[in-house]
Every structure is written in C-alpha cells, then in structure tokens.
Amino acid sequence: MSDFDERIIGGLRVRIDRTLCVGFGDCVTEAPDAFLLDDTGTAVFVKPEEVERTRLLQACDVCPVDAITVWDETGGQIVPGSV
Asked: What kind of architecture, by CATH, is found in domain 4-79?
C-alpha cells in the first residue's frame, strides 16, 4: 500500500498521508461516511463524494497531526488551514 491515498472529490484534491496518520479518528467522528480507520488504525476513504463539501472540509481540518491535505480547484492548499 502507498504512503498516500488521494482522490478528487467535487473538484477538491484530498490526500491522506498514511505516514503521518496516528489514528486519532477525529476525521471519522466528523464524517463517518467519508473516512474510517483500517485494521492498522490509519484513516482511509470510504465514500467521501457522498459527504457535503463543508462537512468534508471540517473532517479533514480536524486532524490533529495534519495527515489530511486538501487543495482547491486552482491548486491552492486549503487544509491544513482555516476552514
């Protein structure tokens, strides 16, 4: 498995850095339809395209170790940052 898992979701590029994720699960708590923790305790995508954009961004932004990065349609990084 790659160190990164990346998807384009509604024009956003969302990347999970598996080397940074320590399994706090805050993203899962915020958006359980988008993320879950796998058997190693690392966040993985479920169906993030089914989650409202604002909720998805909040779920990405709550990661305490910044293991999830989001770029907007123009390539500007919006998470980590202020949502």
From this structure: 2-Layer Sandwich (3.30)
Quote the pTM value: 0.92
What is the residue extent of each domain of the chain? 4-79
- Tell me if 31 sits within 8 A of 58, measured CB to CB: yes
Q: Which residues of 28-40 are buried (b: 16+ CB within 10 A; e: fewer)?
A: bebbebbbeeeee
Per-residue pLDDT of the chain (83 residues; tens, 9 = 90+): 689 999 999 999 999 999 999 999 999 999 999 999 999 999 999 999 999 999 999 999 999 999 999 999 999 999 997 54
